[in-house]
Amino acid sequence: MGTPDSASWQGHLVRLHGEPPEWRFGDLHLRRYRATDHGTVLALHREGLAQVGLRPGDGVYYDHDFFRMEDIYLRNDGEFLVGELNGRIVAMGGLRRADLIPGGHARAYGGYVQGTPALDAVEMVRLRVLPSVQRRGYGAAVVQALEERAAEHGYRILRADTTELQAPALSLYRRFGWTETRRETIGGIVNIYLEKPLR
Predict the structure, then answer these.
(1) So what's the pLDDT on residue 107?
(2) Residue 162 · residue 189 · CB < 8 Å
(3) Which residue from 22, 43, 47, 164 could staple onto 17, CB 3.0 to 4.6 Å apart?
């Protein structure tokens, strides 16, 4: 089992269903994203970035992938999960092929390319937990579920990036055994890149 993201770890992540994937972590229900989730998921994403001062136009913030969820996440060897608490989406996270979206500064400007056939690296992205329910282990549950899915897809390596402003996300990745590979300053914001081997 993965490591908790707080001292209030409530139990273990339990797989309920294989395909489409579904888990339970205490009172949190994790399931695959549906089109009807779009507005809530986009709002949660924007709230999470605003919480740390990221904003459109800073060269780091972007949300164009939320308007191509099927193409980028669900039909291209990826995944996107939402976590529900009493029927309300409070957490989320996704996996997308590392060759679909450019890195660095170009990422903020909507770049997208058709992926290559080889499954090698996958990015873990869009980890968000509603501020009012943070520090309950929900972020760790999403990370663990996404790591399971990446392994099931046959990826060799997990990649992620976050900013110095997003200290809880950085700490969570590190507790799950991710290693920092490099840093890059974009629009005055330090972006930190991390990796984790899967096999």
Answers:
(1) 44
(2) no
(3) 22
